[in-house]
Specification:
By secondary structure, this protein is α+β, with helices and mostly antiparallel strands. The protein is built from five helices and eight strands, in the order ααββαββββββαα. 18% of the residues lie in helices and 19% in strands. The N and C termini lie far apart (100 Å). 14% of the residues are buried. The N terminus and C terminus are likely disordered. It comes from Rhodosorus marinus.
């Protein structure tokens, strides 16, 4: 009965449209398709949202000590050089197509959820500059109301089949969940002459900081390369 009623309704609607002049019929159709001008007033602003990880970071950094504080600040970190890493997307087959075109960009923004951080304070002491507390929103401290991180990573290659993005210059721990990836667009994302607040008063922005480990803890120190001793006697080696 419901289907029969629907068919009757559709036939009546078609007859009514056929009776309208062509010009009026087009105008009425366009009015029906046009969204309301103030359509945001039709919805309530949410106060809580849910997100789903699209993948995970594979990184040489296993703990926060020795991990760079910024993707471009790798002094005092493990290896004292930018490290290679990988972005592994989940098994959704659509992600293979979602990566299309990313290999044409030099850098990408990677948005992650810092799942190991709990709690936050409104005022923090930055690791660089004068020992003055700053508001959490004026710093990049990892403990935040929502532990979301934003990293600009260099793209070295993209493996579409396996849904892996190879990157360099990580500042993320291994196993960090990924929320999104966006291309870095210089004309829209770079503001080289922008003021940087309290950071403008620091001469060496990439230098050692108060919280750095120099040298790092023993279990994080990399073994030094042994000198080549081929063809050298034991006495000469000891000297």
């Amino acid at each position: 009965m419901a289907f029969a009623g629907y068919c009757y309704y559709r036939r009546a609607e078609i007859r009514a449209m056929a009776a309208e002049p062509a010009g009026e019929r087009g105008a009425s159709a366009s009015k029906k398709q046009r969204p309301p001008l103030d359509h945001t007033s039709m919805f309530e602003t949410p106060t809580a949202m849910s997100v789903q990880a699209i993948g995970v970071i594979r990184s040489p950094y296993k703990e926060r000590f020795g991990t760079p504080r910024q993707a471009t600040v790798w002094e005092q970190s493990i290896g004292n050089a930018p490290q290679d890493g990988e972005i592994h997307l989940n098994g959704d087959p659509r992600y293979e197509h979602a990566l299309r075109g990313l290999d044409g960009f030099d850098y990408c923004w990677v948005i992650c959820w810092m799942h190991l951080n709990t709690g936050w304070n409104p005022l923090v002491t930055p690791p660089r500059g004068p020992r003055t507390k700053q508001g959490i929103f004026a710093t990049r401290a990892p403990h935040r109301p929502n532990p979301i991180s934003l990293s600009a990573l260099k793209i070295t290659s993209v493996d579409y089949k396996n849904r892996i993005v190879h990157v360099k210059g990580l500042d993320l721990l291994d196993g960090t969940p990924i929320l999104d990836i966006k291309p870095y667009v210089p004309y829209a994302d770079a503001f080289p002459n922008a003021a940087a607040g309290w950071l403008d008063n620091i001469e060496d922005k990439k230098g050692p900081d108060y919280l750095g480990y120099s040298p790092p803890p023993p279990h994080l120190r990399q073994k030094e390369d042994k000198p080549e001793t081929e063809g050298v006697s034991g006495a000469e080696e000891r000297t």
